[in-house]
Design goal:
Shape: elongated
Strand content: 15-25%
Structural class: alpha/beta
CATH class of the largest domain: Alpha Beta
Bound molecules: adenosine-5'-triphosphate, magnesium ion
Number of helices: 15
CATH architecture of the largest domain: 3-Layer(aba) Sandwich
Amino acid sequence: MIENTVKNNKEVILCKYGEVVLKGANRSDFEKKMLKELRLRAKRIGNYDIFYSQSTIYIEPTDEDAADRIDEMYWHAKHVFGFVGVTRAYTCKKDMAEICEIVRTLMPEKLKGYKTFKVEAKRSDKRFPLTSPQISQEVGGVVLSCVRGIKVDVHNPEVILRVEIREKEAFIHAGQERGAGGIPYGSSGRGLLLLSGGIDSPVAGYMMAKRGVQIEAIHFESFPYTSERAKEKVLELAKILTDYTLRIRVHVVSLTKIQELIRDNCDEDYFTLLLRRYMMAISVKLAHQYDCEAIITGESLGQVASQTMKAINVTNVLSDIPIYRPLIGMDKEEIIAISRKIGAYETSVLPFEDCCTVFTPRHPRTRPELETVLLEENKLDFDALVDEALQTRQIVVVRHFGDNKEESLD
Ligand code: ATP
Ligand code: MG
């Protein structure tokens, strides 16, 4: 009898968005983007009805297959930017006996390990025979009778069990998890991420994606000084970012010729700075071509010789669009914590060489003067080499669902 009742109760996902970012004219745009993002993901998983009402987006399976794959859908809901909280809820008829039955049979699992709780009831259907305090009291009684050791604390509970009497059905849920936060992906325009195989740049990309920036990525390789495997690692990092972005186009540009020319013609102390200026100039050109309104790097002040204020300025002056450096004031430990959170760390620390680590100077300049750098730079035809490097570009579209796809040059 009990099992039957439980079986007939659907489990749904509730995604709550923060009020703060959703004020004014942006609100409906943001809602539409979040719905679209969830629907894109749902399409790959099963049949779900996805709709919004009262600062919440509801995801309801419409058949048994979708109900069986709700864990996957829940994972996706937690990776969509714009939601502050995500919860799994049970639905049932708006009937006190059914509600209490669900609480008795399904909630002990959700409330396990908590010492204190309170029930919050909300009634949008005012015809429901009990008032909100009456619902809370009755449901609270059921919890106390079936969850061992738990106590009521109305002021500072560890967990809140919510009962919502909505238009069509009742929702029961507890233990909301944090959502991905931020604002909807793509709501801030597009940015070009300089993606290396390290720890920092994937984190920088994640942070800007979280603030709504659609990520286009550029990676510089130096084959055969850097290996095919090093490139694969970068594509793997892009793939990890697609947990949040679904797809990322990665432009792979070869710096081999430029690096060899620098090695053969320029003062060793300036190798890295010169290389970084080429990287920046190439990136700026590509950013314009792909309508990117900003360039994004994983630089952090003082982390290495090429990231002192003076060294950063040597590359900064080349760009006529803003350069976002979301990690500029962060310590490595703080960056690593985020890297672990997004699941990139293990891949980032795999030991493969980067183009910045081939031909590295023994005594890199940490306080370079732009004029001296330019003297070295003018030994080569900078503009021509930038254009030539862009010709080597390969485009790989990295997708969350499905394999990578090569795209031809436009
Ligand atoms: P990361 O962990 O991101 O590699 P890092 O501390 O190793 O950073 P650098 O190698 O000096 O720092 O690079 C600083 C930034 O320049 C990187 O965060 C990245 O944005 C960009 N960058 C470095 N190497 C490459 C590359 N091969 N391709 C694209 N961008 C790069
Ligand atoms: Mg690096």
